Amino acid sequence: MPPLDTQAQRGRPAIAQLPELVKNQIAAGEVIERPASVVKELVENALDAGASRIHLDLEEGGVQLVRIVDDGGGIPPEEIPLAFASHATSKLSQVADLDHIATLGFRGEALASIASVARCRLFSRQRGALLGAAVEIEGGALGEVRESGGPEGTRIEVRDLFYNTPARRRFLKTTATELGRCLDIVQRLALAQPGVGFVVTHDGRRAFEVEPSMDLRARVRRTFGAELADALVPVEAADGDTRLSGFVAPPRFSRNDTTRQMWFLNGRPLRDRILSRVLKDAYRGFVVDGRQTVAFLSLAMDPARVDVNVHPAKAEVRFRDERRVFGFLVGSLRAAVQSMDLATPGERLIERLEQRGELTPRQATLPAPAWEREPRPVPSFRDEAPRALPVFVREAPAAPSAPVAPTEGAQKPEEIRGPLLQVGRTYILRAVDDGFEIVDQHALHERLTLELLKDELARGGIEVQRRLVPELVEVGGAAAQLIEPHLESLARIGLVLARFGTGTIAVQGVPARFRHPDPSTLVHEVIAAIERSGSTPGAEELLEEILHRTACRSSVMAGDELSEIEMRALLARARGNDSSQTCAHGRPTRVRFTLADLERAFYRR
Ligand code: ADP
Ligand code: MG
Questions:
Q1: Which of 131, 251, 294, 543 could form an S-S bond across to 287 if both were Cys, CB 3.0 to 4.6 Å?
Q2: Where are the alpha helices (H) located in 134-174, listed in sequence order?
Q3: Given a cut of 70, is residue 407 above it in pLDDT?
């Protein structure tokens, strides 16, 4: 019988241990897929080392360079070679430790893996040590560890990722994509670790930054914007030594993906199916099927009650008492969801109007009126009473006293039907055919007053209300001098002023249509208008400018309680007036919401 045809005889290679470099490259396949994985491992190491400031510089999306500098505890020089050896870690010494892992790393593989697929440099100086040490490692070959000066903490540079494994390198995406993934990792870790500051630069430009002192809400604001950050509802709950804290967002922030569902377990970001289910259950009935809610939640629990060693990237975990944890989480979150204000903010509607071009951003050319700049307290009913006492007497007895009386204006206006509602003593709401309308009573009245005054002026003169006793307004000599040459034209627009001594102006009369004429404010507006109109103000221009300003001051103010009759009269007058769509400064006087807007706000379409 011929001898058996053995494998060895066919030229098969014998079983042998793989070289260390190849082993590490194979291990790297599991944890180092792209620059973002390098960033994740290095930042986690810095956090494990107790860093409170972490600085990252990236080039070309991290492919060319990932440099990290931390102010953590550092590595003693004699341990530096070990840091790059595989399965070498300072975080785990016995099998028993695996049952209560409190650090982010523990497998002792990251640096060895990274060093097998990139060119690395490390400098580290232990806290309190006089000197540090530096080393280079390329192709898994460790250079000489040399004493070196530098700040306390650790600096690691990883260059030319996958330079020796071209197949991997080919799988990398564009710079923008790789950078996006790096930033995503840093932002998650930054949200997981309030108390730690992060700075990231890309190709020399700052790409992300949070200061150590910023809390979770501030970090969400920095990362995702103020609208979300301001709407977050806090969650705080405990079950024994398991603590849940963080924020959930109202359902209107839901999205098609889970990228803004962030769970942190003892400072470690997790992506875990169980936790997505927790959120789904907590929001059941509050969010449309298929939409993913937004939440930033931290779980703190005894490391012994959870197994984080089920996944090489450690993104999944296994809770030892899953049902209890699940029940606790759903219960606490549901309570928070139920406490939320679920109303869609009108802001959303406004954005839609702006997109439709129905609201243009402010065109105001004049500075915001004083009542806007320094909002005065809304007067109570009692504040109103003394104002009713007449300080002025009318020169001409004809005009009705209420400036918004229905008989005012050129033509007899049609009646305004339907209920009106005054909100905040500033806005009038009413239903219109295709939705509803909000009128800014001040802006509208200001516009109407102005139009009337211009009309009167064109027809010969503005009706004046004379003061029984002139009101004296101190303005200083220069300002008084400034007004003096204009006294005559001012009188034409109903502002009867006189110089009184060197620095005082006596207010003898104001336009009768002014509702709350405050002599001192009027005089100061006049001065401002004259100053503004420059060296050669045309008399008409100047008067118009002053009318604008003073009409604004003297109109129905935000804060005036209007009777139903007054509201109707105001709206009716606006009907016949083409320019009443905007106030004298170009701000809208009314905002209209259509039924379509409402349907959208209520998710009916
Ligand atoms: P692991 O984090 O799983 O322990 P690594 O390969 O990531 O494994 O790191 C190996 C060891 O190097 C760590 O256990 C730690 O002692 C040390 N080390 C790595 N990075 C730092 C750092 N930034 N500061 C201090 N020590 C570090
Ligand atoms: Mg590590």
A1: 251
A2: 166-170
A3: no
Domain count, the chain: 3
**255 and 327 housed in the same domain:** yes
Task: Report the DSSP pairing between strands 306-307 and 318-319.
Answer: antiparallel
For the record, the structure tokens of 53 come out as 């400031």
| Alpha-carbon span 168 to 387, nearest angstrom | 81
User: How do residues 73-93 score in pLDDT, each as one tens digit?
Assistant: 999 999 999 999 877 777 766
Half-sphere exposure at residue 5, Cβ-oriented, CA atoms within 13 angstroms: 1
pLDDT at 448: 82
pLDDT class for 129, splitting at 50, 70, 90?
very high
CATH code, domain with 258: 3.30.230.10
Question: Which of the listed residues 281, 315, 338 is the one where a domain comes to its end?
Answer: 338
Q: With bands split at pLDDT 50, 70 and 90, how would you rate the model's confidence at 565?
A: confident
pLDDT for 518 beyond 50: yes
The pair of three-digit structure tokens given for residue 433, joined into one six-digit string: 């055919």
Query: What residues have CB less than 8 Å from 548, skipping those under 6 apart?
Result: 366, 450, 584, 585
Pick from 48, 84, 92 the residue to mutate for probing ligand 1's pocket: most ligand atoms within 8 Å of its CB: 48
Instruction: Please say whether the beta carbons of 233 and 339 come within 8 A.
Output: yes
If asked whether residues 319 and 190 sit together in one domain, one would say: no
Q: How far is residue 68's CA from residue 80's CA, in Å, rounded to a whole number?
A: 16
Q: For position 349, what pLDDT does the model report?
A: 72
Residue 121: phi and psi, rounded to 5, are -140, 145
Cα(357)–Cα(266) distance, integer angstroms: 48
* Ligand 1, pocket-test mutation among 66, 90, 98, most atoms within 8 A of CB: 90
Asked which of 30-39, 174-183, 339-348 is least confident by mean pLDDT, the reply is 339-348
Count of C-beta atoms within a 10 Å radius of residue 159: 16
- Of 193, 210, 227, which one is at a domain's C-terminal end? 210
CA-to-CA distance for 335 and 545, rounded, in angstroms?
57
- Which residue, by CA, sits nearest to atom 16 of ligand 1? 90
Does one domain contain both 547 and 451? Answer: yes
Its pTM stands at 0.63
- pLDDT tens digits for 309-344? 766 666 678 888 889 999 999 999 999 988 887 666
What is the C-alpha separation between 318 and 327, in angstroms, rounded?
Answer: 15
Cβ neighbours for 386, distance < 8 A, ≥ 6 positions apart: none
Kindly report which listed range (89-98, 103-112, 176-185, 239-248) carries the lowest average pLDDT score: 89-98
- b or e along 180-195 (b: 16 or more beta carbons within 10 Å of the residue's beta carbon)? ebbbebbbbbbbbbbe
Asked if residue 349 belongs to a domain, the reply is: no
Run of H or E residues at 19? none
Statement to judge: residues 331 and 397 lie in one domain: no
Same domain? 162 vs 225? no
| Domain containing residue 589: CATH number | 3.30.1370.100
* Residue nearest atom 21 in ligand 1 by C-alpha distance: 45
Give the Å distance between the CA of 72 and the centre of ligand 1.
Answer: 11
CA angle 569, 572, 573 (to 5 degrees): 85
> Residues enclosing ligand 1, CB less than 6 A?
41, 45-46, 49, 70, 72-75, 83, 89-91, 105-112, 154
Domain that holds residue 296: 216-338
Q: How far is the CA of 214 from the centre of ligand 1 (A)?
A: 26
Residue 391: pLDDT over 50: no
What is the SS3 assignment for 105? coil
